[in-house]
């Protein structure tokens, strides 16, 4: 059974940091791209960052570039989203997802598996 389990969300003040984790099981982690997406109430889902576990290439979305980083530990089958300098507009449910691809991309419709999401709330 494929599972993606996010953790690390919570309430943080503006300017603070959080690290989200995405623990994967049930598929060959090394062959997949792991992406982080977010969705705020009333807004469309937005791609945040992604990383290719096979190539180590990563992509960071423009809205979070310079503040967020993505990494993964293939041995632990876990991906991370390090979020710094958080802003109230970063408030959203954050999802990790996986797509069978060597190259990183944030085309959400092509992702094969999704986690249940974790809430991140940034207070001003």
What are the key terms here?
124 residues; mainly beta; seven-stranded mixed β-sheet; 0% helix
Number of helices, where a helix is a run of at least 4 consecutive DSSP H or I residues: 0
Reading the helices and strands in chain order gives EEEEEEEEEEE
How far do the termini sit from each other? 40 Å
Percent of residues in β-strands: over 45%
Query: Count the strands?
Result: 11
Structural classification: mainly beta
Radius of gyration using CA atoms only: 13 Å
**Anisotropy-based shape:** globular
Q: Could you report the average pLDDT, rounded to the nearest whole number?
A: 97
Low-confidence runs (pLDDT<50, min 5 residues)? none
Word description of this protein:
- The protein is mostly beta strands and 124 residues long.
- Helices cover 0% and strands 52% of the residues.
- It has strands at 3-7, 10-13, 18-25, 32-39, 46-52, 58-60, 68-73, 78-83, 92-100, 113-114, 118-123.
- A hairpin with a 4-residue loop joins strand 7 (68-73) and strand 8 (78-83).
- The protein starts with a strand and ends with a strand.
- The model has no long low-confidence stretch (mean pLDDT 97).
Topology of this structure?
Layout (H helix, E strand, L loop, with lengths): L2 E5 L2 E4 L4 E8 L6 E8 L6 E7 L5 E3 L7 E6 L4 E6 L8 E9 L12 E2 L3 E6 L1
Parallel strand pairs: 2-11
Antiparallel strand pairs: 1-3, 3-8, 4-5, 4-9, 5-6, 7-8, 9-10, 9-11
């Amino acid at each position: 059974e494929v599972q993606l389990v996010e953790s690390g969300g919570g309430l943080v003040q503006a300017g603070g940091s959080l690290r989200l984790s995405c623990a994967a099981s049930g598929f060959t982690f090394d062959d997949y791209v792991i992406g982080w997406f977010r969705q705020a109430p009333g807004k469309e889902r937005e791609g945040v960052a992604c990383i290719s576990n096979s190539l180590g290439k990563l992509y960071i979305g423009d809205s979070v570039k310079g503040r967020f980083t993505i990494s993964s530990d293939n041995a632990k089958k876990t991906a991370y989203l390090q979020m710094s300098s958080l802003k109230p507009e970063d408030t959203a449910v954050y999802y990790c997802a996986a797509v069978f691809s060597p190259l990183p991309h944030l085309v959400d419709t092509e992702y094969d598996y999704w986690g249940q999401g974790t809430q991140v709330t940034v207070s001003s």
